[in-house]
Description:
Blueprint: H1 2-18, E1 31-38, E2 41-48, E3 55-58, E4 63-65, E5 73-79, H2 87-101, E6 107-113, H3 121-131, E7 138-142, H4 145-155, E8 160-162, E9 170-172, E10 175-179, E11 185-190, H5 194-209
Parallel strand pairs: 5-6, 6-7
Antiparallel strand pairs: 1-2, 3-4, 3-7, 5-10, 8-9, 10-11
Amino acid sequence: MRNSLLIIPFIILLVACQKGSDRKLPILGNREAVEKTVDGKTIVDTVYQTIPHFSFLNQDSVALTDKDFDGKIYVADFFFTSCPSICPVMHRNMLKVYEEFKGNNEVGLLSHTIDYKYDTPSKLRAYAEKLGIYGKQWQFAWAERDLLYPLAEKNYLVAVNQDKNAPGGYVHQGWFILVDKEKRLRGAYDGTKPDQVEQMIRDMHILLEEYK
């Protein structure tokens, strides 16, 4: 958990360095230099950290996998429906993102519940309907702890945990993580802060331009 807390501020610094420039968004996370042979010559290629295969249940009790986001950029976050602190603020801000890109088949939203005991798919469906969300563009996902928590911390670089002393019994960070069509991390934004969410919306438009 401590490592995730250190990584995200570093990501924010990288994103901030791009503001005011015409450069592409940075590619974040771990990377590895790999040698390969092309036309008889050895070259060094960079392999970036990506979101791996996953298979969860969505709010309709239907299997939701990484393949559902093929050909899309998407924003992921971690929350729980009974959260008494930051989650309502996060999703009020995420609604702005939803409205900005509503109907755009190249953009998805993915909210993972960290309360695997209470937040069954039917609870997630009721939560989505309360927000006014229907259809498949904004998905709400349920998974067992042993599948979800490592994905959050190792791949999305977001710290999540159970803590009986925390409000609602869970500790988590309010980051919105921007993922590109190759499943690479391209940005991290504080979902509780409107200015950072507005920056993310601008960055999403920039990212979409990469695919034109």
